[in-house]
């Protein structure tokens, strides 16, 4: 009750606020009621005007009104009509009068024939109008409307009126309800204001405005006069208040109040403490060049908003001790960062750059790394050779130091020269007083001194007994020279970097050796042949060399073999195994073996390699080697394909459609036990055969089915040429460097025209040899190859004679004109002739010797139903 009396008394802040709220609400309610009443009156009058005018105009323009006015007795005709219209329209009267204002109609008949009360001049002028009058039936609104004949002359007037009481009755009935709602709103607002004032009374302890002002002025003076920083932070981390000392100690911005603690630019440790609200007692934090002891307590007592209050005290007496501890901590952090930040890649140059980036500006203003050229290539350093500036980093870009890439020979008197010669570090605290350093380059040395660089530490990069180069630390901004403690820190930094640089050097050497081996084992150029137009790409893996390979091998009879293989893994072992398999394919293809037999021999070879490479020798088996071997014949346009665990070839038809050939998938090489099958494809001229390794369609983030579909889409967009096909495929398949090698071959087929092929059957009669010679002579004459007639007749004579004597029928001869002239003799025997050297007394045995002398190449190719003996001669 005392509190309520204080509120109602108006002396306290709470009472004044309560009275002010009640007065404002009362004024708002009264204003709302007055506005409603005025609005209702305005709407009533307007409604009366609209209704009376509408009724008058309707009656004036009704059919028969003009004729009734011109009749002998207008009242007899118009009175019934007017009364009926008045009842229907709910107006109080409808009066029809002549142009003199004499009434013809009126609800009260005793007023008919009397003068109309109101204004008629505007209506006589032809204008309709309304007016408000006080009539005998009360305040009303009446409208006067002219009645015009067809010629536009005013022949009479019609007036309709309605009292405002009849129009506004509804609004008047609602007024009590509005007043009741206003009273209820006033009561609720008064109750709410009382509750708010009661809370305010509790907060202000019943003080009046003057007492409150005086109290806050005293509190503010005390708060900002104390020599301790005070901060009040709410539970969300927003700074509510900071006194002058807190602004000074923390260097807070002028608009700090109202902002979050973490956005004020404080050091992370202090900001986290103030934002967390946790209890702290004399917790020391370094802020700029000050050490602050921070005490923090929460304010979550009953009735107090949650948050925290922190006090800050400047502990200058601990500054010196803290400085040394902080320096030690920074050096430990730098050494830790060097351990994790230097050597992230196996690249010599990048490792040197990481050392310079770490040391600038934390330790030195400029850092340079100079390495021997041999180290950059992975070799052993040569102390007599020049060095190359590998990395440069600094606080600015305009320092007059040697730029990166510069070749330098340090004189013996320079700090770098002494470090390289002795293998120890050198400290030059004052460069301006070091003549031996200036002897390196007098002009550049003067520029460096003028630039402001005044102190230098040089440390050799040592890896065991090897000196890889030298690191130079230059100081410019800090006026103090380098000291002995900093020299020790520089030695430790360089020692850690030297290990990483040496590892990168060794990796570079091994990688170069592997790349050299791999490049020596891959084909450097494609052999000449006329059956296929070929384009290829080989992309090494992102890390190390792999075992992917490919080859194009010309075979007898104008045929060409395509081979693609993959040895899983990377490094020298994979490259060496790839070379062995590629050599084996070369040897087996020279035997003109069918694809499935060649793959089977490769499978046996890999099995033997796995047996030889035991675990004791530190070698891994070749498990995972795959291969695809295809032979294309331009005469028949057939391609025979076999594969061992390799992705299927893609085929682009001349119309641009793409399909993956259905080639039986054999097991990977080295597993053994299962036969290999072939698929025979008939290719239209201009078709493109696409062979590839799995690195193109598969990686760790993409399944092979997705890769094959992407390859299909890319091949569908590619142009006609093999080169364009290779480009489109690699552009669409590769988003970054692949983690596996990629080998890609695109071969567009050509067909050997029928006019370049001649074929004759040979009867089982020795006399047929002469006929063959005559036929081939005529054919060579047609081809314009008369120069080869003698040698070709002799070759075919020997081969056909051997087939008749030692082979079996049927026998036929085929001559092909390709890049060479090819002679082939087919027979059904499986026996193979071999070259012998006849003695002086032998009568025969010199036929194949003559063939070998006349032909560039010759050999035997086995067929399912016999063999072919062939010989090739170069075209003139």
UniProtKB/TrEMBL annotation:
PANTHER family reported in the protein's UniProt record: STAGE II SPORULATION PROTEIN E (PTHR43156:SF2), STAGE II SPORULATION PROTEIN E-RELATED (PTHR43156)
Protein's recorded name: Histidine kinase
Organism encoding this protein: Streptomyces variegatus
Location in or out of the cell: Cell membrane
Gene3D superfamilies (alphabetical): 3.30.450.40, Histidine kinase-like ATPase, C-terminal domain (3.30.565.10), PAS domain (3.30.450.20), PPM-type phosphatase domain (3.60.40.10)
Keyword Ribonucleoprotein appears in the UniProt entry: no
Keywords: Cell membrane, Hydrolase, Kinase, Membrane, Transferase, Transmembrane, Transmembrane helix
Top-rank lineage group of the source organism: Bacteria
Residue stretches spanning the membrane: 17-38, 175-196
PPM-type phosphatase domain location: 529-749
Molecular-function GO terms, alphabetical: kinase activity; phosphatase activity
UniProt domain GAF: residue ranges: 347-511
Membrane topology per record: Multi-pass membrane protein
GO annotations of cellular component type: plasma membrane
């Amino acid at each position: 009750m005392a509190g309520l009396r204080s509120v109602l008394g108006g002396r306290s802040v709470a009472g004044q606020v309560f009275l002010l709220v009640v007065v404002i609400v009362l004024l708002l309610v009264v204003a709302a009621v007055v506005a409603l009443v005025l609005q209702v009156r305005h709407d009533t009058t307007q409604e009366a005007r609209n209704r009376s005018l509408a009724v008058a105009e309707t009656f004036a323009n009704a059919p028969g009104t003009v004729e009734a006015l011109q009749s002998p007795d207008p009242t007899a005709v118009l009175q019934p009509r007017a009364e009926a219209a008045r009842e229907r329209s709910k107006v109080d009267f409808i009066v029809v009068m002549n142009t003199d204002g004499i009434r013809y109609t009126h609800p009260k008949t005793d007023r008919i024939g009397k003068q109309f009360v109101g204004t008629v001049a505007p209506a006589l002028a032809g204008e309709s109008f309304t007016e408000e009058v006080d009539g005998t039936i009360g305040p009303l609104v009446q409208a006067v409307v002219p009645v015009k004949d067809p010629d536009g002359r005013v022949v009479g007037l019609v007036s309709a009126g309605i009292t405002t009481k009849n129009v506004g009755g509804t609004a008047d009935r609602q007024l009590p309800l509005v007043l009741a709602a206003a009273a209820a709103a006033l009561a609720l607002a008064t109750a709410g204001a009382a509750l708010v004032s009661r809370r305010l009374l509790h907060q202000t302890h019943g003080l009046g405005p003057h007492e409150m002002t005086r109290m806050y002025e005293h509190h503010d003076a005390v708060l900002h006069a104390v020599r301790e920083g005070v901060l009040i932070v709410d539970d969300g981390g927003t700074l509510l208040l900071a006194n002058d000392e807190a602004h000074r100690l923390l260097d807070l911005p002028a608009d700090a109040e109202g902002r979050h603690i973490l956005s004020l630019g404080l050091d992370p440790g202090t900001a986290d403490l103030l934002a967390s609200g946790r209890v702290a007692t004399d917790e020391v934090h370094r802020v700029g060049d000050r050490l602050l002891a921070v005490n923090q307590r929460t304010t979550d007592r009953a009735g107090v908003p949650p948050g925290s209050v922190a006090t800050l005290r400047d502990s200058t007496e601990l500054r010196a001790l803290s400085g040394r501890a902080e320096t030690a901590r920074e050096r430990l952090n730098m050494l830790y960062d060097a351990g994790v930040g230097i050597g992230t890649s196996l690249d010599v140059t990048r490792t040197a750059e990481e050392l310079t980036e770490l040391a600038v500006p934390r330790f030195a203003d400029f850092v340079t790394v100079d390495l021997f050229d041999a180290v950059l290539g992975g070799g052993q350093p040569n102390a007599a050779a020049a060095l190359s500036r590998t990395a440069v980093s600094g606080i600015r870009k305009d320092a007059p130091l040697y730029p990166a890439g510069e070749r330098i020979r340090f004189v013996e008197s320079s700090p770098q020269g002494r470090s390289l010669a002795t293998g120890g570090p050198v400290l030059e605290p004052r460069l301006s007083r070091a003549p031996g350093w200036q002897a390196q380059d007098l002009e550049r040395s003067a520029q460096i001194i003028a630039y402001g660089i005044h102190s230098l530490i040089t440390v050799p990069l040592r890896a065991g007994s090897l000196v890889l180069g030298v690191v130079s630390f230059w100081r410019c901004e800090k006026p103090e020279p380098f000291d002995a403690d900093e020299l020790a820190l520089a030695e430790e930094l360089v020692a850690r970097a030297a290990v990483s640089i040496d590892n990168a050097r060794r990796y570079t050497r091994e990688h170069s050796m592997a790349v050299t081996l791999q490049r020596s084992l891959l084909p450097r150029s494609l052999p000449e042949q006329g059956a296929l137009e070929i384009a290829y790409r080989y992309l090494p893996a992102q890390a190390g060399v792999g075992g992917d390979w490919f080859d194009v091998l010309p075979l007898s009879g104008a045929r060409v073999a395509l081979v693609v293989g993959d040895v899983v893994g990377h490094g020298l072992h994979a490259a060496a195994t790839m070379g062995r398999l590629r050599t084996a394919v070369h040897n087996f293809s020279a035997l003109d073996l069918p694809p499935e037999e060649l793959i089977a021999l490769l499978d046996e070879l890999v099995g033997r390699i796995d047996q030889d490479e035991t675990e004791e020798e530190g070698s891994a088996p070749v498990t995972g080697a795959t291969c695809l071997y295809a032979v294309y014949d331009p005469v028949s346009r057939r391609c025979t394909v076999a594969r061992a665990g390799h992705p299927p070839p893609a085929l682009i038809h001349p119309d641009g459609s793409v399909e993956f050939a259905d080639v039986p998938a054999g097991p990977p090489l080295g597993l053994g036990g299962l036969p290999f099958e072939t698929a025979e494809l008939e290719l239209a001229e201009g078709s493109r055969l696409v062979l590839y390794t799995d690195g193109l369609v598969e990686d760790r983030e993409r399944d092979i089915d997705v890769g094959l579909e992407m390859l299909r889409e890319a091949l569908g967009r590619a142009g006609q040429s093999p080169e364009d096909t290779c480009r489109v495929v690699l552009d669409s398949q590769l988003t970054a460097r692949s983690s596996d090698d990629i080998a890609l071959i695109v071969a567009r087929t050509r067909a050997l025209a029928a006019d370049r092929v001649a074929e004759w059957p040979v009867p089982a009669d020795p006399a047929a040899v002469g006929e063959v010679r005559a036929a081939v002579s005529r054919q060579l004459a047609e081809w314009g190859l008369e120069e080869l007639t003698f040698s070709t007749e002799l070759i075919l004579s020997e081969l056909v004679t051997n087939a008749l004597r030692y082979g079996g029928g049927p026998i036929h001869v085929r001559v092909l004109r390709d890049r060479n002239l090819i002679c082939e003799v087919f027979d059904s025997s499986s026996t193979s002739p071999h070259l012998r050297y006849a003695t002086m007394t032998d009568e025969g045995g010199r036929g194949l010797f003559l063939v070998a002398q006349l032909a560039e190449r010759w050999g035997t190719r086995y067929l399912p139903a016999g063999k072919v003996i062939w010989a090739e001669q170069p075209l003139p």
